[in-house]
């Protein structure tokens, strides 16, 4: 099974590489990560997704060291725009910043070409035509193959696409995060743009393995997310337990059911679950091998959705950086 991404046929399930270096607690050691990445390619993964912010460049460096000797085997995506450098913290999608960022990413990745390069967030300080123009220059120079955006709203996607055709929009989309259904899902379908879902298994919540978020590592980002706090998690856990039972009934893992649900939302959908667990990596890649019935997907969607889940998907401090349409 293949779907097109930036003109390239890839498997609909790609590998999100973020948590090998950052975000969900203490990451594994380098040797373990290198082993997992190469095993993923052996398994059949051919879409790897990273970003310059993941571990402040360490994730790109990891991919450079681990798999660039197998560069022809996979489609490579990275991102720029989020700045975490002390007082410069914020978003910068100026032409100058992005042009330099591409050079820096190529160096860290040890390659001369990134297949898909995203603006990681919308920068209201920079005219869209200027940002897209810089990326078009990089495309013309052969440094990137295509461009995309992450967490942009429908109007801004249309405006950018009008400047130069956009290949992909990457946005959080899962059974418990439905913001793209407010506009981005239909906009991307209409314009022929791929929609790449990050956190498609709800940041691990629906997998049935997390019972108490308070036991997560102190540096795990989810500890600050409202859906995992003391008020909301018990209510969400009750939904998850029913979801896990439904997956068992359908003879798939909860993560596989979650991935099948996302991929079923349109033929332009891709999903990039991340994991540092070898078995989970394999299970995710084979999520579509044992299709569940439409009735199961419908029951899953009725069980967990924007109306039944408790808490916002992001803490207040992060919501200001998100351009995607939001629920009131």
UniProtKB/TrEMBL annotation:
Specify the NADP-dependent oxidoreductase domain's residue ranges: 12-299
- SUPFAM superfamilies in the record, alphabetically? NAD(P)-linked oxidoreductase
Q: Name one GO cellular component term.
A: cytoplasm
Transmembrane annotation, as ranges: none
Q: Which UniProt keywords apply?
A: Oxidoreductase
Q: This protein's superkingdom?
A: Bacteria
The record, for Gene3D superfamilies, names: NADP-dependent oxidoreductase domain
A Gene Ontology molecular function term of the record:
oxidoreductase activity
Q: What is this protein called?
A: Aldo/keto reductase
The organism of origin for this protein? Altericroceibacterium endophyticum
Taxonomic lineage is: Bacteria, Pseudomonadati, Pseudomonadota, Alphaproteobacteria, Sphingomonadales
């Amino acid at each position: 099974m293949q779907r097109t991404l930036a003109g390239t046929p890839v498997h609909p399930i790609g590998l999100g590489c973020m948590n090998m270096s950052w975000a969900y607690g203490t990451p594994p050691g380098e040797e373990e990560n290198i082993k997992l990445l190469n095993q993923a390619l052996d398994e059949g993964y051919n879409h790897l997704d990273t970003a310059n912010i993941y571990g402040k460049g360490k994730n790109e460096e990891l991919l450079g060291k681990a798999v660039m000797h197998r560069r022809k085997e996979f489609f490579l995506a990275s991102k720029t725009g989020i700045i975490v450098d002390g007082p410069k913290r914020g978003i910068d999608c100026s032409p100058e910043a992005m042009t330099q960022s591409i050079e820096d990413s190529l160096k860290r990745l040890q390659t001369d070409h990134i297949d898909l390069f995203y603006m990681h967030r919308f920068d209201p300080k920079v005219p869209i035509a200027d940002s897209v123009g810089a990326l078009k220059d990089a495309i013309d120079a052969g440094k990137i193959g295509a461009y995309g955006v992450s967490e942009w709203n429908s109007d801004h996607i249309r405006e950018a696409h009008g400047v130069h055709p956009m290949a992909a929009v990457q946005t959080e989309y899962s059974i418990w995060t439905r913001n793209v259904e407010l506009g981005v899902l239909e906009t991307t379908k209409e314009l022929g743009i791929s929609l790449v879902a990050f956190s498609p298994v709800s940041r691990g919540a629906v997998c049935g393995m997390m019972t108490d978020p308070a036991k997560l590592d102190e540096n795990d980002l989810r500890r600050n997310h409202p859906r995992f706090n003391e008020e909301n998690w018990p209510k969400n856990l009750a939904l998850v337990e029913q979801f896990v039972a439904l997956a068992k009934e359908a003879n798939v893992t909860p993560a596989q059911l979650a991935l099948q649900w996302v991929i079923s939302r349109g033929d332009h959908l891709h999903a990039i679950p991340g994991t540092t667990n070898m078995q989970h990596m394999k299970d995710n890649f084979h999520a579509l091998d044992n299709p569940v019935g439409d009735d199961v997907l419908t029951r899953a969607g009725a069980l967990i959705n924007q109306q039944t889940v408790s808490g916002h998907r992001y803490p207040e401090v992060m919501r200001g950086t998100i351009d995607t349409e939001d629920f009131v």
